[in-house]
Amino acid sequence: MKEIEGGVTSPKGFKAAGVFAGIRKKKKDMAMIFSEVPCIAAGTFTTNIVKAAPVKWDMEMVKKSPFVQAVVVNSGVANTCTGATGMGYCRDMAVTAGLNLGIPTEAVLVASTGLIGKQIPIDKIKTGIENLVPILGSSKEDGIMAAEAILTTDTRKKELAVEIELSGKKVIIGGMCKGSGMIHPNMCTMLSFITTDAAISKELLQEALSTDVKETYNMISVDGDTSTNDTVLLLANGLAGNHEITEKNEDYEKFAEALNFVNTYFAKRIAEDGEGATSLFEVKVINALTKEQAMKLSKSIVSSNLTKAAIFGHDLNWGRILCAMGYSGAEFEPDDVDLYFESSGGKIKLIENGIELIYSKEAAEEILSKPEITVIADIKMGNQSSTAWGCDLTYDYVRINAAYGS
């Protein structure tokens, strides 16, 4: 596997575009992904009981539609808590895209992100779709335009592409995502769109995505809020020409490994771009008895607002970390825990067997001042581990969200 330049347009047959449709002020706010041939589709979606209309539409289409060929995305308005009208607007988006692309309505997936409770400006969106279709392209720049058009409070675009070899054929997985606030996925406001030219059965494509989401997107937290719009879509058009993956063989393992690389990359980029964040906060729980235990502990630490605030202040308040472990729901022995802080500034052991060690506070503060900080908790119970990602909690997070609706 190797990383290559590009994003959603890197796999064969995929095109994309992004435009300004007038939903937001002066920023590109609509994107489209299109495959020249029909794709099989897999998806994972928010587990929030309050689900956006596009989530409901996509859940139905991914499950029942024989194929998918396009995705239409708008930013600025989430189309959530909008009743029958909002659902009707999802169909309107799909109908408009289908007519302009010459594909069935049911072959169009839709996604929205932004403010909850407002109806989307459907006339602007229809015009946006009509403007997107003629400029669809397969270049790297076309992918960038799409990646930029789906952002809300994000400070940067997020895209990636990797190349692997399956049954002697070059296969590419590419993608783009957005996410900065309301980030505490549980499925899997975050959106991720992944494309591949691999030939793989729908059942195995869905299994690969559903399995991987648990250890990637579901292991990040910016603010503890599970969005109403969380969506991960994976489209495969088979144009790479590899032997179709229909069983869990070596090719399936290679594909799953590459998919994990892409999803892990996106999960970390979302976490580090948390609203107002100044650092990526990584938590590794090692030597756990079970994977589930390690996941509970690491996610609890990375989600703790007190710990995140301490990271922002370069504060050595490791007691907050043990506290977060204690209410995680996972059983462990506090008196056996060793705790480390690590970054490009070095590595330091703060506690051993639950007791604070003598260490240089200046050295620890230097470690905590770096843009990527890792906490390692060794609970000495087995050989399982898990990693979670978040960010520090800053004054700017409050500023951004205090004014988001206005």
TrEMBL record:
Give the residues annotated as active site: T189
EC number, as in UniProt:
2.3.1.35, 2.3.1.1
The record's top EC class is transferase
- Report which reactions are catalysed by this protein: L-glutamate + acetyl-CoA = N-acetyl-L-glutamate + CoA + H(+); N(2)-acetyl-L-ornithine + L-glutamate = N-acetyl-L-glutamate + L-ornithine
- The residues annotated as site (Involved in the stabilization of negative charge on the oxyanion by the formation of the oxyanion hole) are T113, G114
What positions does the entry give for substrate binding? Answer: T152, K178, T189, E275, N401, S406
Q: Which GO terms describe its molecular function?
A: L-glutamate N-acetyltransferase activity; L-glutamate N-acetyltransferase activity, acting on acetyl-L-ornithine as donor
Indicate whether Chloroplast appears among the record's keywords: no
- Coarse class of the protein's main subcellular location: cytoplasm
Pathway membership of this protein? Amino-acid biosynthesis; L-arginine biosynthesis; L-ornithine and N-acetyl-L-glutamate from L-glutamate and N(2)-acetyl-L-ornithine (cyclic): step 1/1; Amino-acid biosynthesis; L-arginine biosynthesis; N(2)-acetyl-L-ornithine from L-glutamate: step 1/4
Q: Which InterPro entries match?
A: Arg_biosynth_ArgJ, ArgJ-like_dom_sf, ArgJ_beta_C
Which keywords accompany this UniProt record?
Answer: Acyltransferase, Amino-acid biosynthesis, Arginine biosynthesis, Autocatalytic cleavage, Cytoplasm, Multifunctional enzyme, Transferase
GO BP annotations of the record are: L-arginine biosynthetic process; ornithine biosynthetic process
Localization of this protein: Cytoplasm
Query: According to the lineage, what is the superkingdom?
Result: Bacteria
Say if the entry is tagged with keyword Acyltransferase: yes
Q: A cellular component term (GO) from this record?
A: cytoplasm
Its function?
A: Catalyzes two activities which are involved in the cyclic version of arginine biosynthesis: the synthesis of N-acetylglutamate from glutamate and acetyl-CoA as the acetyl donor, and of ornithine by transacetylation between N(2)-acetylornithine and glutamate.
Quaternary structure and interacting proteins, as annotated: Heterotetramer of two alpha and two beta chains.
Query: What family does the database annotate?
Result: Belongs to the ArgJ family.
Protein's recorded name: Arginine biosynthesis bifunctional protein ArgJ
Q: What is the source species?
A: Sedimentibacter saalensis
Gene for this protein? Answer: argJ
